[in-house]
Structure formats: structure tokens, C-alpha cells
Design brief:
The complex is a heterodimer of chains A (205) and B (793). Chain A has helices spanning 33-40, 98-105, 115-128, 134-140, 151-162, 175-178; strands spanning 6-11, 14-19, 59-62, 66-69, 82-84, 170-174. The longest helix of chain A is centred in the middle third of the chain and has 14 residues, at 115-128. Chain A contains six helices and six strands; from the N terminus they run E-E-H-E-E-E-H-H-H-H-E-H. A five-stranded mixed sheet of chain A has the order 2-1-5-3-4, with helices on one face. Chain A is 26% helix and 14% strand. Chain A is an alpha+beta fold and 205 residues long. Chain A is elongated. Chain B is an alpha+beta fold and 793 residues long. Chain B is built from 18 helices and 36 strands. In chain B, helix 9 (352-366) packs parallel to helix 10 (395-412), helix 11 (417-424) packs antiparallel against helix 12 (448-459) and helix 14 runs parallel beside helix 15. Chain B starts with a strand and ends with a helix. Classes of the chains: A alpha+beta (205), B alpha+beta (793). The interface between A and B is large, with 82 and 101 residues. Bound molecules: FE2/S2 (inorganic) cluster (FES) (2 copies). One FE2/S2 (inorganic) cluster is lined by residues 48-51, 53-58, 69, 71 of chain A.
Chain lengths: 205, 793
């Protein structure tokens, strides 16, 4: 690393010049990119979970192609480079990135804490390969932790984007769809006798 | 089709005969209100938030499992520039307790587990606070630790707290059991039950790996001391705090915090929660630590646990050891359960009694036809990290032992487990004692056995079930074998705890736009879509677009009470309160409409903020034309606790075991449930798929917290050593979902998220045993365990 007193990084299309050092407001050489994004620039869409490169929550895209865990990268190493975060994906004119839209359409998240990282990894994958196979998608995301289990809907969203229409890991069968000649649906709402919770002698009214 | 005998009469229930309602919103997928914020990175979580003049807290933690603090020197830490406060057991501003019942203080001259609190530091930056922690010099005198309930309850075991002689935690808590403690199922005559049994088995089974639920967002809080305010009861006034927290329930946190900080008044605010799985509720150690620092420094203090702290010192699953004997008759009905359940709550017992109650309750749902019980329980404190609430809430921990034991009589009688579970599971009219210690009679679904069968059909059970300890497939080289297993679990907590809501239809002041509906209730979003579903429910009752319905920010201070997210109750109880509130508002406006149209209320209805005459829809009037100028129409609704609509989830697992290495791979999974009515199609799907996560299914094979007994330390306190299932390891998942319109509330739904994966661990052990042809009874069934079962090592 070359020792210098300032660095310039383009983040989501905007150039930022940072002074490097230990003084107030300066970026210390040991500051991670994740901290710079979150604490200095208010780009809190990049999430920190493990802070040790194991979960993928903090992923950003560098120089338009590489997915990088920003919790493991030092800000000073990004002098002259371009960083794209989840906040920079939406086009102000064209709207959401197709991946973002697909995530909404397929409900590809639950709590959403891991989602920005997953979206950025997926974005990097699609930048490098427009039609990844289902296996390539799963492999690419193998470093992303999601404990709520949005994996099935994430894969569904990305496979649709990639044109892998048949790739489906989850099969949810609704009994109502299987009924032949179903009874016509009823028109009006009926209030449940239990709607007030007062029917039981055990309830603490 | 399912059949039921009621005295002499025999009824047949055909699923097709259930009239399915035609809803405008309910049952369909609708993107969550915060969907766009989540995918664009704008959604706010606790650590994305700051308050003015905020400083940072850090915790100095114990390296030893059980030790006295002989000396502690904080002078160097205090001298560090930027340090605002250093608090130890010696200079705590007030004595705040921990545990339920309170068993210790937040900081003590003794530490009880690795990662226990030694000192609290507040400083201008997190880095300074951390450095200060390192500068605190502590001398410890180590004490004998104890690491399991078995050991802790034995005579002569090292003692933790004076409050718990023999390390024995109080069996019951008034909060959970209003009529007095309840911790045993005692019913019928076990001796007689064993006489009626044809197959009897007795064993000790442990589910003791205390795995971590592992929310991606660590437990974190910002606490602000708002000063002492005058009070009518306490003449010195009462301390006020505001706590912003990554908790899934402001209500529970308030309840616990006010019980710990004497005479306090605490205002809790919550955000989007980055995963919780029941685990981020009261978060008492973090909340009290930050609050104490805030009180000492008079500044807001942010305390964000690191991942390592979360894995090493935050709440994990209960340890569970079951000694039991069960009897089964010639038809596969369980006739007797006799035994004892030992529960390890780690170094702090906090709401464990509720979990034990639910665990015992769920055992009765699975074995509902059993008339003879003597199932005792005992809770112990040990020198392991604190166990707390985790999805499954005691049920998964006991079920993983009980269903494993049930395999023995099923095997002896050569029963197909599918038939046994179908026969024994609770049907309407069967009784059980729930965690409140009261007796309840199920009025839930008749279709649980049918849901089990349909899921089994999807899974291909009939082809793959070839008998006990028999693989259904072996590779040509004889190296790999496949087997199947299943488990069933249910929960009756979906209607637990009281909750209220206000629904206001607010006018459109300038008269040109649509009006809005505002829901006031305290409900957080931790990923299940509860807030959006709440809006959907109000929209359905009032028949307005969901986009026109908004819900107040979660928080305990300005909202009507809502117990929050737990026990799969979120949508059901919140939904019920909201539906009732919306009905009341609707009734008021219809009464006005009745005067306007000179019709009866029953002849009118509402749609898109209009009141119209049902048989002549042309006769319509905007709501606010007939209402008081610029006033809103307000309705109030509530839900009162009940426990009589248990849920049911069955899980089928197909595994392949490498007979040489002992490595197990799950090949696919199927699940079946009757959910009453789907509120949101995709949210329901993810509740079911969620069973893979939060220390459920994978606790059978590789998920565990590895304890080094020499040092008392967890060797898996980072995300590299703690094993979790990665994206490329997800396997085909099938689910069969019935909607039999269970009468839980207006929209007839049941919650299943609490237990969607809870039967997975025992099902997996059954599958492994069948694949390898030998009984595996140890969690997790690592390669070593599997090879040992096969007598290969
Ligand atoms: S936070 Fe960076 S990889 Fe986990
Ligand atoms: S959506 Fe919660 S961890 Fe992935």
C-alpha cells in the first residue's frame, strides 16, 4: 500500500475525496470499506453481520464486476476505484434494477438483513454472465448466509431472470387447487363466534 | 376424508365440503409494505439508526465459566481519553436483577459463564470502548463449573445461585401460570397404561447441543435515560428510559425491563428486525447494560453485540435430557408416558418456565390419545451460556427426545410411523393441559391426518418406507444407503396473550383523494410480513385497497398493547384485534348510512370508502359525506388469550448416508399442514421453508455449539466454525397445505412458523437409522456418531 494523505473513490457514481489519517474526520488506514460506507456516507444498505468475511451481508461491487465483502476490505485500498452499493442499483430514470424487481415479485427475502448482500452478489454474477445455470446461481450465493430461509424464493427470482424457467426447488401444493368441481365460493363474510375471544370460561376477560 | 365418532353418530368430513370464502386480499400474495425499502437498502435496522449525542457501550466479558472476581482494577480504562463510564459490580449505580425469578444481579463479584458480564464501558467511539475493556485488569479465582442439567441437579454439584438451591430453578411462574406453577403432566394411571401396552420402551435421550438460532443482525440497543419523573406512588420519583432495540416485541421487552429496573417507566421502540426466530425478545443483558451506562453518563448509549458475542454469550436453545418410558398398544396408540424431562437453561433462567410448559403441552398434542401420564420436569442452571427463547419454544427440544424414543415401540410393533402419528395426533374434542396449567379442548382441524397423508404422498413415502432400520436404496457398490423418516409436531400458542388495536378510517380533508385507514397497534416486523398482513386484514374487513391502509410505527408508548411476535401468534391475534376494531368502525359508519338511506344496517355494506345499499349498489354515498366533518371513524378491537386451536406440521426427510465416512446428506424434504386459511401465499410458503433455518432440522446432523469442557468456552463462536447450511446445499422442498377454515378468528387461519421445522431433527435421526440399519439416538448425528452406531469405530 502506498502511503498517501488522501484517496478518491467513486461510490454509486459520485466521487468522494477522503483524507487519510488519524485526525478528526479522516479515514484511518485500518478503517474497513463497510464502516466508511455506513458510518461516513450513511449508506446503511450495506449490512454488517459477521464482520469477518463469512456471511456476505456486506457485499458491494467493485469496478463494475467483482463482488467484494466490504467488511474485509480496507477503504484506503480503493483509491481510484469504483464501488457500487445496493443504494446505487436503482436507476433514477429507469427505476429498479431487474434483480430488485424480481426480488419483490417473488418475495425473495424475509427479514431483509441478508438481502442487499444477496442482491449484490447476484448482480455481480449477472454482470459477468447473463444466463447463469441454476447450479452457477447456487454456487455464486454459497457465501451468503440467510437464516430466515429465503433461499427458495431467491433462487426462483434469479432463475426466472436467467431464463431457467424450469429450475424449481420448492413445490407448494395448495389443497384447494386440487379439488375437482369445488363448491362455489361464498359471498359474504361470516363473523366467527370466537372473534371476541369470550367463548371460553378459561380466557381472562 | 376423515372420520370421527361422536357417541353413536359417525360423521364424515370431506375436505371438498368446506366452503372456501372469496376474499379480495386474503390468501393472495401481496408485496410487503417495506419490500422496496428492503431491496434498495433503505430499510432501517437498529444499527442504521443513531440519536443525537450518542456514545457507545462495550462489555468486558469473563474468560472463565465459573469464577470469583478477586480484584478488578479499572483505573487505566478510566484514564483513557474518551471513556465516559466504567461500571463494575463495585460501582453499579443501582442493583438491577437478572432472570425470572430474579436470581442474580446484572454485575456480580462472581461470573457464571464464559462471556458473562464483568464490566460495562461507555466511550465516545466503539474503538475507545473496546480498548478500555482491554485495559481493565481482573484477577479471577476459578470455581468448579457444571455443564449439564444432569450434573447440576446431582447431589454435591457446584452451586450457582443462592436463589436456586441445588441449581433447581422454580418450576412455575405466575406470569405463565396464573393459577399456580405447572410443570408435570399427571393424569390417569400409568401402571394400568403399561398393562394395556403391548410394546414398551425406556431410554434416556438428549438434545443438548444448545445450538444458536443465529439471527444475522446481532442483538443491539440504544438506551437513553430520560431522567427521574414525579410519581404518585414513589415519592422519590421514577426513572424513565427510552430504549430503541432490535427486539421483535417491544411489549415483552418493556415487561421484562420494568421488572428489572426498579419502579421504572420504559419506552421501547423497535425497527425492522434482522432475523430473530423468537430469540431477540427481552434481550435483557444488552438492554440493562446499555441502560445502566446511559444512566451513569446521562447520554444515549448504543450497544451492538459483535457476532462473536452473539454466538458465545447470547441466548441459545435449551438443553434437553429426557428419561422416559412409553407404552404402545397393539393398534399403535400410545397408552402411557412416564418420565422426567431435565432442562438446562444455562447460566440465566429467563422465561424458561413458559418453554417447559409449552414443551409438555406439545407432547400431549402429538400423543393426544394417551390417557396415562406422569411426565415430570426439572429446570437447572449451569455454567453454560444463557439459554433463551428460540423458535420451537421448548417444544422442539422435548419433541426431539420424545419422538426419537417413540421409534422403539413403533419398531417393536413394526408399525408404519405415518399411521401411528396420524392416529395419535390431537383431533377436535381431545383435551390437553397447556402451559398456563389449564385444561383445554381442541376445536382445531379434523384434517391433520389427511394433511400428513397428502404430504407423505407428495414425498413418496409409500415407496420409500420399507420398514424399520431398512434402507430403501443402496448403491451398487454398497457404499451409500438411503432411508426416510418423519416427525409431527404442533403448537397451541397461536392465540396466546391479550392484544388490542384501534382502527381509524381517516377522512380526506380536501375531498379529492381517497381516505385512509390507520391501524394503531404495537407490532414489529421481523420478516414474517406481520405488519403487511395486518393491513391486509383491515383492508379486507373494510373492503378498501391495501395501499390505503397504514399501520403505526411499532413502539410501546403510543400504541395500544400488543404482546408482539411470538408463538406464531402475530397475524392471528393482531389480526383478530384489528378485524374486530375494523368491524366496529364499519358498524358505526353503516349505522350512519342506515339513517341516510333509510334502510336497515344489514342491508348496507362498504366498499372503497363508500357506503352502499347491497341490493341496489347504485345507491351509494362517500363515507365522509355522512360522517362528522373532518372526524375519523374509530373502532376498537381486542383479542383475549385462548389455547384451544392447536396447529400441526408433519415433516418427512429423505437422507443418504455414506456408509464408509458416516456423512449424511438430506436429499429432500416434505411437509404437510392444515393452516386454516392462507393469509398471504408466499409468506406462508416461507414460514414452512423456514424450518430449515434457526437451528431446527440441521441440529440432527451438523449444527451444534461445541463446548470445550476444559475451559468452558464455546469453540464455535464464529460463523466459520459454527456450521450452517449454505445456498448450494438447499434441497427440493415439497409442501402440502390444506385450508379447512379453522375457527380461530374472522379469517380462520392458524400460525405454523413456530414449529415448521421443529419435528425435523427427530425425523432425520429416524431416516439415518433406517438408512444404516442401526439405531442412532445422538444429536447431532455427525459422521463419528453414525459410524459408532454401525460399530465401525
Ligand atoms: S459482514 Fe462482511 S461477510 Fe459478513
Ligand atoms: S431474509 Fe433474514 S436472513 Fe435472509
Amino acid at each position: 500500500m502506498i502511503k498517501q494523505d488522501h484517496i478518491t473513490i467513486t461510490i454509486n457514481g459520485k466521487r468522494y475525496k477522503f483524507s487519510v489519517g488519524d485526525g478528526y474526520g479522516e479515514v484511518p488506514p485500518n478503517e474497513t470499506l463497510a464502516d466508511t460506507l455506513r458510518n461516513r456516507l450513511g449508506l446503511t444498505g450495506t449490512k454488517i453481520s459477521c464482520n469477518e468475511g463469512a456471511c456476505g451481508c456486506c457485499t458491494v461491487i467493485v469496478d463494475g464486476k467483482d463482488a467484494v465483502a466490504s467488511c474485509m476490505a480496507l477503504t484506503v485500498e480503493f483509491d481510484g476505484r469504483e464501488v457500487l452499493t445496493v443504494e446505487g442499483l436503482e436507476d433514477p430514470v429507469k427505476g429498479l434494477d431487474p434483480i430488485q424487481q424480481a426480488f419483490i415479485d417473488e418475495y425473495a427475502f424475509q427479514c431483509g438483513y441478508c438481502t442487499p448482500g444477496i442482491i449484490m452478489v447476484a448482480k455481480a454474477l449477472f454482470i459477468n454472465n447473463e444466463h447463469p445455470t441454476p447450479e452457477q446461481i447456487q454456487e455464486a450465493l454459497s457465501g451468503n448466509y440467510c437464516r430466515c430461509i429465503s433461499q427458495y424464493t431467491v433462487l426462483r427470482a434469479l432463475n426466472k431472470l436467467a431464463g431457467n424457467e424450469d429450475a424449481e426447488l420448492a413445490n407448494i401444493v395448495r389443497a384447494n387447487d386440487e379439488i375437482e368441481n369445488p363448491i362455489p365460493v361464498r359471498q359474504v363474510l361470516h363473523l366467527s363466534p370466537y372473534a371476541n375471544g369470550s367463548s371460553s370460561s378459561h380466557s381472562i376477560d | 376424508m376423515s372420520e370421527k365418532n361422536y357417541g353413536e353418530k359417525k360423521f364424515e368430513y370431506n375436505y371438498r365440503d368446506i366452503v372456501q370464502p372469496n376474499y379480495r386480499h386474503i390468501g393472495k400474495y401481496m408485496p410487503r409494505k417495506e419490500a422496496k425499502d428492503i431491496v434498495t437498502g433503505k430499510a432501517t435496522f437498529l444499527d442504521d439508526y443513531s440519536v443525537p449525542d450518542m456514545i457507545y457501550g462495550k462489555i468486558k466479558r469473563s474468560p472463565w465459566p465459573h469464577a470469583d472476581i478477586v480484584s478488578i482494577d479499572t483505573s487505566k480504562a478510566e484514564a483513557l481519553e474518551g471513556v465516559r463510564a466504567v461500571i463494575t459490580h463495585k460501582n453499579m449505580p443501582q442493583k438491577w436483577g437478572l432472570g425470572l425469578p430474579v436470581q442474580r444481579l446484572l454485575l456480580e463479584p462472581r461470573v457464571y459463564h464464559v462471556g458473562d458480564l464483568v464490566a460495562l464501558v461507555a466511550a465516545d467511539t466503539p474503538e475507545i470502548a473496546e480498548e478500555a475493556c482491554e485495559l481493565i485488569e481482573v484477577e479471577y479465582h476459578q470455581l468448579q463449573p457444571v455443564y449439564s442439567a444432569d450434573e447440576a441437579l446431582a447431589e454435591g454439584a457446584p452451586q450457582l445461585y443462592e436463589r436456586f438451591p441445588g441449581n433447581h430453578v422454580d418450576n412455575g411462574i405466575k406470569y405463565f401460570q396464573p393459577d399456580g406453577p405447572w410443570w408435570q403432566i399427571i393424569r390417569g394411571d400409568c401402571e394400568q397404561g403399561f398393562k394395556e401396552a403391548k410394546y414398551i420402551a425406556e431410554d434416556k435421550i438428549e438434545f443438548n447441543q444448545m445450538p444458536v438460532p443465529g439471527a444475522p443482525e446481532t442483538p443491539s440497543v440504544i438506551a437513553r435515560f430520560d431522567g427521574i419523573q414525579p410519581d404518585c406512588v414513589h415519592k422519590d420519583g421514577v426513572p424513565n428510559f427510552t430504549i430503541w432495540a432490535s427486539s421483535q416485541s417491544a411489549h415483552i421487552m418493556k415487561l421484562m425491563a420494568e421488572g428489572r429496573i426498579p419502579n421504572s417507566n420504559v419506552n421501547i421502540k423497535t425497527f425492522n428486525v434482522g432475523g430473530s426466530y423468537g430469540n431477540k425478545q427481552s434481550m435483557m443483558t444488552a438492554a440493562l447494560s446499555a441502560s445502566m451506562l446511559a444512566m451513569a453518563t446521562k447520554k444515549p448509549v448504543k450497544l451492538v453485540l459483535t457476532k462473536e458475542e452473539q454466538l458465545m454469550a447470547y441466548e441459545v436453545r435449551l438443553g434437553s435430557t429426557m428419561y422416559a418410558k412409553v407404552g404402545m398398544d397393539e393398534d399403535g396408540i400410545v397408552t402411557t408416558v412416564e418420565g422426567k424431562w431435565l432442562v438446562d437453561t444455562g447460566a440465566v433462567g429467563d422465561s424458561v418456565q413458559g418453554q417447559v410448559g409449552v414443551g409438555l403441552g406439545e407432547a400431549q398434542l402429538v400423543l393426544a390419545k394417551c390417557k396415562n401420564w406422569y411426565m415430570d420436569s426439572e429446570i437447572a442452571v449451569t455454567n453454560r451460556q444463557q439459554a433463551g427463547i428460540v423458535r420451537g419454544y421448548g417444544g422442539q427440544e422435548l419433541n426431539s427426545c420424545l419422538e426419537r424414543l417413540l421409534c422403539a415401540p413403533m419398531k417393536a410393533g413394526n408399525f408404519n410411523p405415518l399411521e401411528v402419528f396420524k392416529k395419535n395426533y390431537i383431533s377436535p374434542g381431545d383435551c390437553f393441559t397447556w402451559r398456563d396449567g389449564r385444561n383445554w379442548k381442541s376445536r382445531s382441524s379434523f384434517f391433520f391426518p389427511e394433511a400428513m397423508q397428502k404430504a407423505a404422498d407428495l414425498f413418496g413415502w409409500d415407496k420409500k418406507w420399507v420398514g424399520w432400520n431398512k434402507p430403501y436404496w443402496v448403491s451398487e457398490d454398497g457404499r451409500k444407503a438411503r432411508g426416510v423418516g418423519m416427525g409431527v409436531i404442533g403448537n397451541a400458542d397461536i392465540s396466546e396473550d391479550n392484544t388490542e388495536a384501534i382502527v381509524r378510517i381517516i377522512p380526506d380533508l380536501v375531498g379529492k383523494r381517497a381516505s385512509r385507514v390507520v391501524i394503531e397497534t404495537d407490532i414489529t416486523e421481523s420478516g414474517m410480513g406481520t405488519r403487511s398482513n395486518a393491513c391486509k386484514i383491515a383492508a379486507e374487513v373494510l373492503n378498501v385497497p391495501v395501499e390505503r391502509v397504514i399501520i403505526t410505527e411499532p413502539g410501546s408508548q403510543y400504541n395500544p398493547s400488543n404482546y408482539g411476535l411470538c408463538g406464531s401468534r402475530g397475524v392471528i391475534t393482531t389480526g383478530k384485534a384489528i378485524a374486530n376494531a375494523a368491524m366496529e368502525a364499519k358498524k358505526k359508519i353503516l349505522e350512519r348510512g342506515a339513517i341516510y338511506f333509510k334502510r336497515n344496517v344489514d342491508q348496507l355494506d362498504t366498499k372503497d370508502f363508500m357506503v352502499y345499499v347491497r341490493d341496489n349498489p347504485e345507491m351509494q354515498v362517500p363515507m365522509f359525506k355522512i360522517w362528522d366533518k373532518e372526524m375519523s371513524v374509530v373502532g376498537y378491537g381486542k383479542h383475549l388469550e385462548m389455547f384451544d386451536v392447536p396447529s400441526c406440521v408433519s415433516l418427512f426427510v429423505d437422507v443418504e448416508v455414506d456408509l464408509e465416512t458416516g456423512h449424511t446428506e438430506i436429499l429432500d424434504l416434505a411437509t404437510g399442514t392444515d393452516i386454516g386459511q392462507i393469509i398471504d401465499a408466499k409468506a406462508c410458503e416461507m414460514q414452512l421453508e423456514g424450518g430449515w433455518g434457526s437451528a431446527c432440522i440441521d441440529t440432527a446432523t451438523f449444527e451444534e455449539n461445541v463446548l470445550d469442557k476444559q475451559t468452558g468456552r464455546i469453540m464455535t463462536s464464529n460463523m466459520i466454525d459454527y456450521k450452517w447450511r449454505t445456498f448450494n446445499e438447499f434441497k427440493p422442498f415439497n409442501a402440502y397445505v390444506m385450508e379447512s377454515q379453522i375457527d380461530s378468528f374472522m379469517f380462520k387461519a392458524l400460525g405454523v412458523g413456530e414449529v415448521s421445522g421443529a419435528a425435523g431433527a427427530s425425523a432425520t435421526l429416524m431416516a439415518i437409522s433406517n438408512a444404516i440399519g442401526a439405531d442412532v439416538k445422538e444429536y447431532p448425528a455427525t459422521p463419528a456418531v453414525v459410524l459408532k452406531a454401525m460399530d465401525k469405530i
